[in-house]
Write a structure and sequence with these properties.
about 475 residues; 12 helices; alpha+beta
């Protein structure tokens, strides 16, 4: 009790700055307003500095105006689909003085014409350098005779919940608008349609038209690109999300230098650590992500990551689920190493994990089945992590699937569909296209074909008789 009273007295008599250092445990230049004068301080100096680098992005696309009776066999001759032009509005951020602009992919998707309007009302035609649906980012370029104002990236990585931020864009097309708020949360996953989402949540008002605009800190640096809101009405409810600057910088660097965005793949299944797992591993609280499975010869396997390890952090940033790990890897260039902090047998160790793409071919050439067999007329492909990630399948799943079925083919007549996985054929297990080719060659022309097929997670055993 005396110790606590003494500490309180020391804090009461110490200078304000010293109090901050003692309470935080380290020097911190953030200060809490202590007077009415402090509360009346303005964001105007930051706004003046950053708004010239935030632009409006106008896109025009052609869409089919589908009539309700257009698909009816009788009325389709009278009611044909008529193409029409659709205009949409978003925002963007100038990230390079030569005219490079980052925005959201959904702002420019399908656009036949793009136009960028600067804060000083200058207008430019824009071309797309790169689009990436997985991160919902796109990079544009405009031709200009003079350097454009640039919004620098905040590369410090020290943004915290509670920091003041400004959202800048063109909501509802009313013109460039600045709203203020705080960082409400960090590393929000499973809140959007992107595969590599680890969003900054903010209560700064974000509305339709803000997409692709800037989220900036009090140093006038870009901390994120505003991308979506949580709303039941379509208007701002104080829950907005921005793509962190680490991902934005990776996509921009790719567009300006490498040209192709490599999607890193860890090759490990991770499970969030709950209270039961934390107790089992002797943790004082739930934290990190438990390694459940390792894909042979993938990056995790080659780095020495083992089943039962708990991944606590990547490059010093805490990780609590697989989505967070995917995001951290995706912010690194292919060929880099990411440092994993891992808990194993009660001890922490550091593992260097190479940032590399998923093994396999993302768009393999199909094997066209011919001959006299129930698969004749079908196209088959071998599953691999690269292919599975592209089409949305479990990347750990292997085997052979039907990728296409010809019209009026034998395979179509017997009911094969794209996505069907061949498990067994003629009583023999199927692991690869070579297995299929050997079985078909050895049994071509036979009448009875027993097979096992997996469709949408369900296993079917049947026998097909040729006539």
């Amino acid at each position: 009790m005396i110790k606590h009273l003494l500490l309180a007295c020391l804090l009461a008599t110490a200078p304000a700055a010293a109090q901050e250092i003692d309470l935080a445990g380290a020097a911190d230049d953030r200060i809490i307003p202590e007077s009415r004068m402090d509360m009346q301080m303005s964001f105007a100096p930051v706004v003046r500095e950053v708004t010239p680098a935030v632009v409006n992005v106008f896109s025009r696309r052609v869409v089919e105006n589908q009539h309700p009776f257009a698909n009816d066999p009788f009325f389709s001759r009278m009611f044909r689909s008529q193409p029409r032009e659709q205009n949409s509005l978003g925002s963007g951020v100038i990230v390079d003085a030569s005219g490079v602009i980052v925005t959201n992919n959904h702002v420019v998707a399908g656009a036949t014409e793009l136009r960028v309007v600067l804060a000083d009302r200058r207008e430019f035609d824009a071309v797309i350098l790169l689009t990436d649906e997985a991160t919902d980012l796109a990079v544009l370029r405009v031709e200009t005779d003079e350097p454009l104002p640039v919004l620098p990236f905040d590369r410090s990585g020290d943004i915290e919940v509670g920091d003041l931020v400004l959202a800048i864009g063109n909501p509802f097309g009313v013109g460039q608008t600045v709203t203020s708020g705080i960082v409400s949360a960090l590393a929000r996953t499973d809140v959007g349609q992107t595969d590599f989402g680890s969003f900054i949540q903010t209560d700064a008002a974000i509305n339709p038209g803000n997409s692709g605009g800037a989220l900036v800190d009090m140093d006038g640096e870009l901390v994120g690109v505003n991308t979506m809101i949580f709303s039941r009405s379509g208007g701002s409810n104080g829950i907005g999300f921005a793509i962190p600057v680490e991902m934005v910088a990776r996509v921009v660097d790719t567009a300006m230098n490498e040209g192709e965005l490599i999607r890193p793949w860890l090759g490990a299944r991770l499970q969030p650590v709950d209270s039961d797992i934390a107790d089992a591993f002797g943790l004082n609280r739930p934290r990190g992500a438990l390694v459940n499975e390792i894909y042979p010869l993938a990056a995790a396997d080659e780095a020495g990551l083992m089943q039962g390890d708990i991944v606590l952090a990547i490059d010093g940033q805490p990780v609590n689920n697989e989505a967070g790990a995917r995001f951290r890897l995706a912010t690194r260039a292919a060929g880099d190493d990411a440092v994993f902090t891992v808990l194993r047998d009660g001890e922490e160790l550091a593992l260097n994990v190479a940032v590399q793409p998923a093994p396999g071919i993302a768009d393999p050439d199909p094997f066209a089945v011919g001959g006299r067999n129930p698969l004749s007329g079908a196209n088959l492909v071998t599953l691999s992590p690269a292919f599975n990630e592209r089409v949305g399948l479990d990347p750990f799943q292997g085997g052979v699937v039907v990728s296409a079925v010809g019209r009026r083919s034998v395979a179509g007549r017997f009911g094969f569909r794209p996505g069907d996985k061949l498990v067994e054929l003629m009583g023999q297990p199927v692991y690869s296209l070579d297995d299929v080719a050997d079985i078909l060659t050895g049994h071509d022309g036979e009448q009875l074909w027993p097979l096992v097929v997996e469709r949408r997670g369900q296993r079917f055993e049947t026998s097909v008789r040729l006539y």
